[in-house]
Design brief:
Blueprint lengths: L21 H6 L18 E2 L16 E5 L4 E2 L1 H8 L7 E5 L1 H9 L8 H7 L3 H16 L1 E4 L3 E3 L13 E6 L1 E9 L4 H17 L10 H15 L11 E6 L2 E7 L8 E3 L29 H9 L12 E3 L18 E5 L4 E3 H7 L8 E5 L1 H9 L8 H4 L6 H16 L1 E4 L4 E2 L15 E5 L5 E8 L4 H15 L9 H4 L2 H12 L7 E4 L6 E5 L2 H5 L4 E2 L7 H6 L19 H11 L15
Parallel strand pairs: 2-4, 2-5, 7-10, 13-15, 13-16, 18-21
Antiparallel strand pairs: 1-3, 5-8, 6-11, 7-8, 9-10, 12-14, 16-19, 17-22, 18-19, 20-21
Length: 592
């Protein structure tokens, strides 16, 4: 039986209620521990036993050690190693593979993406790390590595006022981590793990991080963005504040052996690997479902046909051709454009007509349609709904939206001030077997003002994930540089992860999945001459954008009054305290 404390989604810790009672600890005991272990485990195996101790209740961190093992039936050597963690004044609970899987599958408001992530994970090491963090998040206490044993000083390291405790020795260590329940550092580590691992386990070209690089990355991120400090941790103990909590760093340089000793036993106690290959949770096969057209039409085509536009503006209706999606063609004959509303000036209305090709559908997505797309469930992008709260400009939403709409439905995206150039040949330049299609722009990387892709293309997936990663890493959401965060920088890296390079010559390049590819046309010269895409064909003025209420796409002072915090702090404040709901997120799209 697994005991998980029932607790509201918040980081506050009550000095008394946050501590597990003796009755609580009795629930942590596996019922099998109460019977004769000789009838449970195979011969020559010993069933490891939980231990309940009525420990000192004055400390904020519960002195409850959580150890994750593949099985509770262990060899004598393995049992001896784990028994060394039976420290004075501490309880210890062991969790086997079945219990770990139950912990991973538990729904949590703070981490709705974890259930999807576990479907992608094949590495027992990664699963073990996530389970340990979840145990700290749910219960508080201490988690330990199964291949380490405690030194003589470790049992007394936690002080009563500590809220989170970690060790440092030139880099940070995760052999032993201690925290109160719902500590923001654990929230941060879990979200960072999800962001990193989801990218790694869906991208077969991504260079995996080693355990040490990944764990060190936790604390580099945390000390840079959350518990900001110039402290180099030279003192033996130092305490740092952030997000209304504290962490204590213990420097064990030159005395690590007094706190930890590495075991000579192999790492057989971690959770087992799952059969399969990385990337299995995303199907990279071309999915051109003709029935998807109705879903797209419902997403976009829900407006008041009798709506009136201001004087001098024209109402734009969609061109709908159900045959735009065909199983014989990879990139659907669908053109996507976006504007704040369906009312545009004459210059923009005339320019949009230049994209009316034979057999093509043309959809104009207004801000309401963009918001509807973001509100859908996106299990393949687990941090999407949290990180869009860190987008502060209409341009940022439009950037991320264009990757997402092409990922889901495929087709062509173009800015509304673009027109097709003479070499684009009214869309016939894109052939039936083209899988993704870009112009090489003047800066020599793939165009972001015009792009085309089939549904579920790796480049679009990676562009979304890169934009999410960039947002997640924002130290100050007000000062984010949109072109790098969600704009061409995110797309460039998406293409790089898809084919291994983002500065290419014209031609077709295979992706990491042999079924997918990207075709590039043009070069710096043709881009500057506007041979393929006539970029900026509308000589618009600020007054025209103001009339269409699109100044929010170009900042125009809309950053004033926003909290100058990191994205992670924004996620924390919104998810746990309901702050900024009238300022951030999709609310930004409703600004007048």
């Amino acid at each position: 039986m697994i005991f998980v404390r029932s607790m509201d989604l918040m980081f506050g810790v009550d000095d008394s209620s946050s501590l597990l009672s003796k009755e609580d600890f009795s629930l942590l005991l596996d019922p099998a521990d109460e019977i004769d272990p000789s009838g449970v485990c195979p011969k020559k195996s010993i069933r490891i036993q939980n231990a309940l101790t009525d420990h000192n209740r004055t400390s904020l961190i519960p002195k409850e050690i959580h150890a994750v093992v593949r099985t509770k039936c262990l060899t004598e050597e393995q049992t001896d190693i784990l028994n060394k963690w039976r420290l004075d004044g501490h309880s210890i609970t062991f969790y086997d593979e079945q219990e770990a899987n139950e912990i991973l599958s538990k729904s949590r408001l703070a981490f709705p993406q974890l259930v999807q992530l576990t479907q992608c994970l094949t590495s027992g090491t990664f699963k073990t790390e996530i389970v340990k963090l979840l145990l700290l998040w749910d219960n508080g206490g201490i988690v330990v590595d199964e291949n380490t044993t405690p030194g003589e000083l470790l049992g007394k390291i936690i002080e009563d006022a500590d809220e989170g405790l970690f060790f440092y020795d030139a880099s940070f260590h995760t052999e032993y981590m201690a925290a109160v329940p719902k500590h923001p550092i654990i929230y941060t580590m879990l979200q960072k793990t999800v962001a990193d691992l989801f990218m790694q386990h869906t991208n077969m070209s991504f260079i995996p991080l080693t355990d040490n690089e990944r764990k060190s990355g936790y604390f580099d991120f945390i000390t840079k963005y959350i518990f900001t400090t110039t402290n180099d941790f030279k003192e033996h103990r130092s305490t740092h504040s952030g997000m209304n909590r504290t962490i204590t760093i213990v420097n064990i340089t030159n005395e690590k052996s007094q706190y930890f000793q590495n075991s000579s036993a192999p790492r057989l106690l971690k959770l087992g690997d799952t059969e399969g290959t990385e990337g299995v949770c995303i199907d990279w096969g071309v999915i051109n479902d003709e029935s998807a057209f109705k879903s797209l039409e419902a997403l976009v085509h829900s407006f008041d046909i009798d709506a009136r536009c201001p004087d001098g503006q024209y109402f734009i209706e969609d061109i709908i051709n159900p045959q735009s999606i065909s199983s014989s063609r990879r990139i659907p004959k669908i053109i996507h454009m976006t504007s704040k509303t369906r009312c545009v000036t004459k210059a923009f209305a005339e320019n949009m007509k230049t994209w009316h090709f034979d057999d093509y559908s043309v959809f104009l997505h207004d801000d309401e349609a963009i918001a509807r797309l973001f509100r859908r469930d996106w299990p393949e992008f687990p941090l999407l709904k949290d990180t869009i709260n860190c987008i502060t400009s209409g341009a940022g939403f439009a950037d991320l939206w264009r990757y997402l709409i092409l990922w889901k439905y495929g087709g062509i995206y173009t800015d509304i001030d673009n027109a097709p150039g003479p070499l684009f040949k009214n869309g016939t330049l894109i052939k039936e077997n083209d899988d993704a299609f870009f112009e090489v722009e003047a800066a020599k990387f793939p165009s972001q003002y015009f792009l085309a892709a089939s549904p579920h293309h790796p480049a679009m997936y990676m562009a979304v994930q890169n934009a999410i990663q960039h947002l997640f890493n924002e130290q100050n959401i007000v000062k984010q540089y949109v072109p790098l965060t969600t704009g061409p920088g995110a797309l460039k890296w998406g293409v790089h992860y898809a084919i291994g390079n983002a500065y290419v010559l014209p031609g077709t390049y295979p992706s990491f999945d042999p079924r997918r590819s990207i075709t590039f046309v043009g070069n710096r010269t043709t881009a500057m001459r506007r041979n393929y895409i006539n970029r900026g064909n509308v000589q618009s003025t600020r007054e025209e954008y103001l009339g269409m209420n699109m100044t929010h796409y170009h900042y125009a002072g809309r950053q004033k009054g926003l909290p100058e915090k990191s994205c992670l702090e924004i996620m924390f404040d919104m998810n746990t305290h309901g702050k900024y709901s009238d300022l951030l997120g999709l609310k930004r799209l409703s600004l007048k």
